[in-house]
Amino acid sequence: MKTRIVLSVLCLLVGGFAGSSLARHFAQRHQHARAVMWLAQVHLDRLSAAARAGQCQDFETERRRLGVVQEELLLAFPLAYRQEADFRNQADAFASAVRDARTESNACVSAEGQFKPIHDACEACHRDYR
Questions:
Q1: Virtual CA dihedral for 128, 74, 101, 55, nearest 10 degrees?
Q2: How many separate domains does the chain show?
Q3: First to last CA, the chain
Q4: HEC readout, the chain
Q5: CA of 61: how far to CAs of 50, 67, 71, 105, in Å?
Q6: Which residues lie below 8 Å from residue 33, measured CB to CB, with a gap of 6+?
Q7: Is residue 56 part of a domain?
Q8: By residue range, what is the domain housing residue 121?
Q9: Model's pTM, two decimal places?
Q10: Is residue 6 part of a domain?
Q11: Rounded to an integer, what distance in angstroms lies between the CA atom of residue 128 and that of residue 123?
């Protein structure tokens, strides 16, 4: 009886350790992609706040940062970008929305109107790839 309990506890410990190791291993494989998405969300939220507040300088700063994150997306998802036309189209639409906002933001016109295409590009991609 005691042997069964000890053996059961030992099996649970070994299984827990193995499960934890596997979970860490699989989480590490996708950490870059998850980090890029979290960072993009942070800058998108800050871009939205700047647009709502009409803070053109902050909007331009966050738009530039989002442009850098957009470039990082291509590094985070290289196979998807090369092999999937839909993903490539979504990524290019996002880059275009960020780039177009850059052109208009120099004149500081309707930052909130410029935010919408960027947000829509993010949502369109997430609809297909979440």
A1: 100
A2: 1
A3: 49
A4: CHHHHHHHHHHHHHHHHHHHHHHHHHHHHCHHHHHHHHHHHHHHHHHHHHHHHCCHHHHHHHHHHHHHHHHHHHHHCHHHHHHCHHHHHHHHHHHHHHHHHHHHHCCCCCHHHHHHHHHHHHHHHHHHHC
A5: 10, 10, 16, 10
A6: 76, 77
A7: yes
A8: 31-129
A9: 0.69
A10: no
A11: 9
Place of tokens 């275009």: 96
Considering only CA atoms, which of 47, 79, 48 is closest in space to residue 66? 47
How does pLDDT run across 83-119, given as a tens digit for each residue? 888 888 988 999 988 888 765 545 555 667 778 888 8
**Does residue 14 form part of some domain?**
no
CATH of the domain at 113: 1.20.120.10
- Does residue 62 belong to any structural domain of this protein? yes
